[in-house]
Amino acid sequence: MPATWIVLLVLALAVTGYVLGRSRALKSAGGDSRNLHSLPRYYGAHVLLMTLVPALGALALWVILQPLIVDNAISAGLPDSAIPEASTRGLVMSDVRRVADGLDLAVSEGTISAEDAASLRPEFNNIRDRLGEVGVALGSDVSAPVLKAAQEYRRASSTASLLMTITVLAIALLGFGYALSRTNGEFRARNVVESGIKALLVAAASIAILTTLGIVLSLIFNTLEFFKLYPAWDFFFGTTWSPSFGGGSELGILPLLWGTFYISLIALAVAVPIGLFSAVYLSEYAPRRIRSIAKPLLEVLAGIPTIVYGLFALLTVGPLLLKVFGDGGLDWMQAGTAVMTAGLVMGIMLIPFVSSLSDDIINAVPQAMRDGSYGLGATKSETVRQVILPAALPGIVGAILLAASRAIGETMIVVLGAGAAARLSMNPFDAMTTVTAKIVSQLTGDADFASPEALVAFALGMTLFVITLGLNVFALYIVRKYREQYE
Amino acid sequence: MTDASLPEPRHARSLRDVDARTNRRNRAEARFRAYGIAAVSIGLVFLVVLLGAILINGVGAFQQTFVNVPVYLDPAKLDKNGERNIEDIKKVSTFGYNPLVENALLETVQASGADTELDSAAEMKKLLSASAAAQIRDTVIANPELIGQTVEFRLLAASRVDGYLKGRVKREDVTRDKNIDVAHLDLTDKLHDAGVITKGFNLAFITGADASESRPEQAGLGVSMLGSFFMMLVVLGLSLPIGVAASIYLEEFAPQNRFTDLIEVNISNLAAVPSIVFGILGLAAFIQFAHLPQSAPLVGGLTLTLMTLPTIVISTRASLKSVPPSIRDAALGVGASKMQAVFHHVLPMAMPGILTGTIIGLAQALGETAPLLLIGMVGYIATNAPDGLASGFLDPNSAMPAQIFEWAKRADPAYYERAWGGIIILLVFLMTMNIIAIILRRRFERRW
């Protein structure tokens, strides 16, 4: 039975439970809800929760774990002889899964009968062609062990699905029965329901921890896998980046880090002065009307998706720069995609980020400090430069660090605007590439993570995560510390 | 003390004549102010240039050149048995339709009186999109009774012809182009004057599917829009309840302890994790580990949910915090439990703020591209609109920003126009969402 049906059945049971629980409680109180401990609907909700939550929890767990367990069992059953040279168990298993899925599809479309699918033998039937008919393309002919494993896979999966249906429905029924049997006028339904809801709230809040855990685990495991295939020293200190899926790649991160750093530097060189001066002007000088128009308009820049900036870099800024610095002009630039292109556009993107953060921080400087400075005869600009900015400096540094972390993690602008060549060069008009851009190019459309060329993306991701996390934690620490100073 | 030790009295001056130092300070003041104005203006100029570039480059995508041709649907070719059996008609492939198209085009050109150097109908057919035959075939299969009649078709023009009429393709560019000659452009001009070739609103761009690399004139955003829609359903359906539940716990129930601190630190850090890292997580957790189908909107939605959650939690907590404690105290005072006070009183009052935050979070998720690249929502052609809910969530599809990225990577400049046009549509969606959020905030926000 597919999971949707199970969910619907459990839901129906739960709704019935609500009605039954409510009426049973009322009946036990002689129809007068004043004799109940809780409002009647809490008795209903109690049965509903007891039916729904454990059953759906079990279902979710089962759905996640089943493929893993079945996979492991089948994979262990594969004889070593079934794995061709230059292939791995994982690759063969993905073949097995594909054949099994293909057989499922063929059965559901009626081109192969269910008995046939379970007893097909590769010597007599051309599986590849028959699966091709239903739109499952296989790379090579199906070998006997693979077909056998696929058939076992199907058998195990269908047994497991049957078991799952039975287990989940049993859990739902048990919960239903237990909750209903407890329902009487004395039962403190509200307290139980409320602690149940609270548990759900805690579970929801824990998802943040699970997400972080997921990020860290998926990065660490794949990174370790990568370092088994490629020496960590060469990765961190190699100065050449030239992946080739045929093997013999050189995967040094330094050129990528340099590109990331250079582009971020240019972006900050654009965004920090403009953003900071805008913030100072808008918070200290601008009349209320101008502020109320200019501030939201600047913030529109922050709401524009990065793909738009990427396209802007690729198709507008790049060609424009090429016209000035390229062949016809100063001849410093070979192509439209360059560090400068990506850096400039990223700077535009970061302006509102810097300006609104600095704006908040400048506004948090106590008015008394301004008044004191004016009282001594300082002009506005002197006050800003000698009183406000020094007082706000830690916060502004924090804001800049946050912007830097955004710049380092930015992907679309560099994928479209910075070029693809990894090189260590000082010329800002050269094409360079970044950590994020290489993550994209190493992983796009890849499903099998067996080669160091694909796995390196996880090591890059780990590096990126550590750098941005470090910057963020440091920046938040500075900002918080600064805020406390004036509170 | 004697008078002699007193400093000489300073030379009294009028306050009106300003000394050099004050002048300098005033100039510095004016300069500083000018820097500020300049910075704001530069920012605004960037905004205007950006929006201008989008508009100028993108409007073209909403216009499309069509060739109006009456085509005689020859029964001898399309239905040899003459039984109007739909299976027989389906057997005729698009190749079978090509002669019909060529004849029709030839006749139309002759009827319009345009003289041309192009001698064969096959040459003239380069004016039409490669999809022309398929377009006619689809119509015939949908309405078999049309066979034997002459039907007026509005066929897509080739992308070069389209580009020429829009000014993107110049005469001097086509000399090295193997798809089209100057003679074609001459004929285009004449047919345009004769009203055979017309420009019209390009509905197919908004509703249609992506097309292969060589047929930019046929590409549309419709299917990937559906992909985005299903992704947003997942994001909304998961991140709103989970986000609100998490915020209620943290804001109303959580005790001050290590566990709560851990959650809070996690949320504030997740909000600043680069989006591509969420893509890696989605790839590893949902595809590598849980074996969910690649490129499916479900996976995209799950990944974006994890990304959007911190945004929603932060804004929901802010709006829960803005409900004054007196409301809670009053509810508790009349005997409500803590849970009832929160769900019956605090939550409804915080709802406008929560919805605003959710809409803004959704708008962010809608425009996000980087994580989608990693879970495989690019790199293939999204031609089939999903039929039904399950296929909408599980079948491979693209998403609006991923489709735009895909177009930007293709070599034909005609696709750049589509990419800009796609951005206009994307921005219209984002703008609508943000305006709804602003209206919600203005209309329902209460100040206590």
Automatic annotation (TrEMBL), chain A:
Q: Where are the transmembrane segments?
A: 45-65, 160-180, 200-221, 260-285, 297-320, 332-354, 387-408, 454-479
Give UniProt keywords alphabetically. Answer: Cell inner membrane, Cell membrane, Membrane, Phosphate transport, Transmembrane, Transmembrane helix, Transport
The places in or outside the cell where this protein is found are: Cell inner membrane; Cell membrane
Quick one: where is this thing mainly located? membrane
User: Know the name of this protein?
Assistant: Phosphate transport system permease protein
What PROSITE patterns does the record point to?
Answer: ABC_TM1
> Into which family does the record put it?
Belongs to the binding-protein-dependent transport system permease family. CysTW subfamily.
The membrane topology of this protein is:
Multi-pass membrane protein
Gene3D superfamilies for this protein:
MetI-like
Its gene name is pstC
What PANTHER family would the database entry show?
PHOSPHATE TRANSPORT SYSTEM PERMEASE (PTHR42727:SF1), PHOSPHATE TRANSPORT SYSTEM PERMEASE PROTEIN (PTHR42727)
Any one biological process term the GO annotation gives: phosphate ion transport
Q: Which residues form the ABC transmembrane type-1 domain?
A: 257-475
A GO cellular component annotated for this chain's UniProt record is: plasma membrane
- Give this protein's Gene Ontology molecular function annotations: phosphate transmembrane transporter activity
Q: So what does this one do?
A: Part of the binding-protein-dependent transport system for phosphate; probably responsible for the translocation of the substrate across the membrane.
Question: What InterPro entries would the database entry show?
Answer: MetI-like (IPR000515), MetI-like_sf (IPR035906), Phosphate_PstC (IPR011864), PstC_N (IPR022182)
